[in-house]
Structure formats: C-alpha cells, structure tokens
Specification:
The chain is of the alpha+beta class. It contains five helices and seven strands. It has a seven-stranded antiparallel sheet with strand order 2-1-5-6-7-4-3, with helices on both faces. The protein is globular, with a radius of gyration of 15 Å. GO terms for molecular function: oxidoreductase activity.
Length: 169
C-alpha cells in the first residue's frame, strides 16, 4: 500500500475523532460560503443546509455531489457518526442544497449498503478532500469499495416539495 501523503495526515488530524476541529470548522464555513455561490475549485461542490436535530436551527456545510448515471448523491466522508448524517436522518431526509446562488429543496434518501460501491468510486474521483478519510485507493477495485461501504452513508438526492409530508424515519 502506498504511503499516505503528508496532507492526508493533516486532514485526518483536522477531523480527529470523526468531527471537525476548530480549523476544519473554519475551513468548512469558508468553503460552504464559496460552494453556495459556485466559487469553488470543485465543479460538483454545493452547500448542504439541514435542520439541527437538537436546536432546530439550520446547519450548513460544504459537500461534493457525486453524480452516477445522472443521479446525484451525497456521501459522508466521516462515516456513520457525522453530525450532518444524524441531522438528515432526524429531518426525515429533508434538506436544502445551495448551488450557484440558488436554493433547492431536496429529500435525501439513504442508499442500501449493497448499492454504495459505484457511488463511493465516483465520490473519491470528484472529492479530493475525502480521500484521506476513506481507507481505499481512489482507483481501488469495486470489491474493496464494497467492503467499506457500510461505514460511509450515501444518500440519493431527490427533489422535494417544501409542503410535502414527512416520510417515516
């Protein structure tokens, strides 16, 4: 296995314990602002806004949208216990994607583990900042991605009407 790049160690340090530290939080705020306005170095960048499960206040964070066969997906690079994943589940998948200065109401539908491999492959190709957190090479065989798929929640992005009823959790 190849030796990790020095910036991989820095990225893992910024997110030690599976949560963004102060530096990562500041970087996320800056990227979130840029991504919402489409001023980002990553073409598939967006800002996710979801209600906080405890406060009910909107929480925003930068995300990279992985498109597979014309379908958009979001992946949690920090895995199952990322705050945004918990918030999305508590909000029954309801969220907002901000891109190019526009707001889009969306419903995030969790993808079954057995179908996550191709999405993880695409995500690693389009989200360079996620690579230090996913323990497989960017060009790993699909079988390797499927082995770690249960550790990284994947959500399909679907349009949502703001007045649609909540789906059961």
């Amino acid at each position: 296995m190849a030796r990790p790049r020095p910036w991989y160690r820095i990225k893992r340090w910024m997110y030690r314990g599976g949560r963004p530290g102060r530096l990562a939080a500041a970087v996320n705020r800056a990227y979130g602002w840029l991504f919402a306005r489409r001023w980002a170095p990553v073409p598939l960048a967006a800002t996710l806004e979801v209600r906080g499960r405890r406060t009910g206040e909107p929480v925003t964070l930068p995300v990279v949208v992985a498109d597979v066969d014309g379908v958009e997906h979001l992946v949690s690079m920090l895995g199952e216990h990322a705050g945004w994943v918990r918030n999305v589940r508590a909000a029954h998948g309801r969220a907002v994607l901000l891109r190019g200065g526009r707001r889009q109401d969306v419903r995030l539908v969790e993808v079954p583990v057995g179908r996550r491999g191709p999405v993880l492959r695409r995500y690693l190709a389009v989200a360079p900042g996620a690579r230090p957190h996913v323990p497989v090479a960017r060009d790993a065989p699909l079988a390797d991605l499927e082995r770690v798929a249960a550790d990284f929640p994947v959500f399909r992005v679907e349009p949502d009407a703001p007045d649609a009823p909540d789906a059961p959790a």
